[in-house]
Amino acid sequence: MHEARRTRTLRTKRLLDVVGAATALVVLSPLLAVIAALVAVRLGRPVLFCQDRPGLHGETFTILKFRSMLEVDPARGRTSDASRLTRFGSLLRSSSLDELPSLWNILRGDMSFVGPRPSLCRYLELYTAEEARRHHVLPGLTGLAQVRGRNALPWPERLRSDIEYVDTVSLGLDARILLRTVGVVIRREGINAPDHVSSDVFEGTAVMTGGSR
User: Which residues, including other chains, have CB under 8 Å from residue 182's CB and lie 6 or more apart?
Assistant: First the structure.
């Protein structure tokens, strides 16, 4: 019975994702056009940041975001993320406007509105078997870890939150996460990890906690 209920929940989530993403892309199309133009002027082309990320069952997809950094330019000393992130790019990130192109990923079925945030492909080999269960659902635009601290949340806590979401996924939980996300974005909480312009690097739970895998 539990598995049947979970299947119905995931199917309903997918339907809501399609309707919500399609509606948002239409309604927000003028805003998307304005941001794209500003990115082209302030940061140059291409206006989209495209990167392979692990999705459902660890299968890769190409995530879409607005660019928020200048191109790498060693001659000008622009090699680190901190040196490439402009004030305009920082505004895009802090307001989460850089995430709007990911609505296309939701419409395509690569992502959901709510789920574990898609991390980097190179992290796949660092997860324990338990941590890898975060890929048992579609990655999300926001998630339980994001409303609990976002990038400021230590990696072990982020991953525990992801697994908790996988084990307790429900439409009610999604609704609560989406409502809390609005507050997190408005207050611009957890945008970056301490001493980083975004997230810190995941090196494996054992390394980060001093234990053994």
Answer: none
**CA angle at residue 6 from 2 to 7, to 5 degrees?**
120
Residue 40's alpha-carbon distances to 31, 34, 49, 51, 72, in angstroms, are: 14, 10, 12, 19, 16
Mean pLDDT of 3-14: 92
- Per-residue pLDDT band for 206 (boundaries 50, 70, 90) equals low
Q: Kindly list the domain boundaries of the chain, sorted by start residue.
A: 2-191
Give residue 213's pLDDT band: very low, low, confident or very high (50, 70, 90).
very low
Helix H or strand E segment including 142: strand 140-142
Query: Quick one: the chain helix, strand, coil %, rounded to 5?
Result: 60, 10, 30
SS3 107: helix
First to last CA, the chain: 34
